[in-house]
Amino acid sequence: MESTEQKERRLAAIGACDRVLSHAKRPTMREQLARIATRDLDRLPDMYGDGVVGELEQRVAELLGTEEAVFFPTGTMAQQVALRCWAGRTGNRTVAIHPLAHPEVHEREALSVLSGLRTVHPTTERRMPDAEEIRGLDEPFGTLMLELPLRDAGFLLPTWEELTATVAAAREREAVVHFDGARLWETTSHFGRSLPEIAELADSVYVSFYKSLDGLAGAALGAPAELAAEARAWRHRYGGLVFQQWPVVCSALYGLEHELPRLPRYTAHAKTVAAALREALAEAVPFSRVHPEVPHTHQFQVWLPYPPEVLDAAALRQAEETRTAVFGRWFPGEVPGLSVTEMTVASSALEWTASDVTEAVHAFLDRLN
């Protein structure tokens, strides 16, 4: 567990770096306020979801091609509401979901504790479930939830053909389909489809404003008008109808205007970065791995055969000594002796060439000794 002192030292070191490869340099509060200040702030603030909140909801609905969108303070709340609404409509409280999906790993069993839902797993493989696994699931389910991309498996996506087949298999089972699209924004390059084409496959879609768009917080649920109306009622019950939310909403609008158009470029450059990392590590470190080898989005994993604390210490020394940061935090992997870190290729990485990556990786590895 990283102590507060260690965290502050790490963030200070990255903040002082001139070059950062993986997107770990957090904007200061002043920088965040400057983004918000690009909006028209002379108007009255929102009150319980009107004003600028409604503008954001309309913008998201247009981007996704859904009838409506509902703003939520968190994605955890948005998805719980969506899944319990669908359970009421289908009459089945069972959700088919991957065991590595966000509600199963990161939400303290909220689906069952708060919403009374239960989950079943079509597969335990570290990939999206396929159509045959959905057809072969040995009990009824009301909703299939697909996380696009599946973050804890390595930000993995199926092919477009695999995705459409899996959705069709759920329809054959008379189930509705919900997309956990926290990072849906960056899937268009991989699928070769627009956001509306992707969202159209599902009955509802959740998107995040801070994971890829650098917003302060917040999420939205794209859904048919009838479900959106019920979602607003449950949002109120869950405590999500906040008095004023304009700072979060303005930062989300900034992200839609400035970060969303850049995501295809980030995704393309991630392939260059991943290839350079893979080659540099393979030369010097047995059992190293870049996963997936060709990233599906602008995010992917790197695995190395060292304890996390050793890798964190080397990364910190590199940042403090060279003002260059290659990796963020490292965490224990599922295999003993291996550690994993997540790479996010964003604006700070665009200036890095393959040779820059190679040189910086060698400098990092030198500090492991």
Q: In CATH terms, what is the fold-level topology of the largest domain?
A: Aspartate Aminotransferase, domain 2
- Cα-atom radius of gyration: 21 Å
Q: How many structural domains can be distinguished in the coordinates?
A: 2
Question: Which structural category do the helix and sheet elements fall into?
Answer: alpha/beta
Count of DSSP strands: 13
CATH architecture of the largest domain: 3-Layer(aba) Sandwich
CATH C-level category of the largest domain:
Alpha Beta
Would you write up a description of this structure?
This protein has helices at residues 4-15, 29-36, 52-64, 75-90, 102-105, 110-113, 131-135, 160-172, 188-191, 195-199, 225-237, 246-258, 263-284, 308-322, 354-366; strands spanning 19-20, 68-72, 94-96, 118-120, 143-147, 176-181, 204-208, 219-223, 289-291, 299-304, 324-325, 331-332, 339-344. The strands form 3 sheets. It has a 7-stranded mixed beta sheet, sandwiched between helices. It has a 4-stranded antiparallel beta sheet with strand order 9-10-13-12, covered by helices on one side. The chain is globular, with a radius of gyration of 21 Å. It has 15 helices and 13 strands. Strand 9 and strand 10 (299-304) form a beta hairpin. It starts with a helix and ends with a helix. The protein has 2 domains: 4-25 and 262-366, Aspartate Aminotransferase, domain 1 (Alpha-Beta Complex); 46-243, Type I PLP-dependent aspartate aminotransferase-like (Major domain) (Aspartate Aminotransferase, domain 2, 3-Layer(aba) Sandwich), CATH 3.40.640.
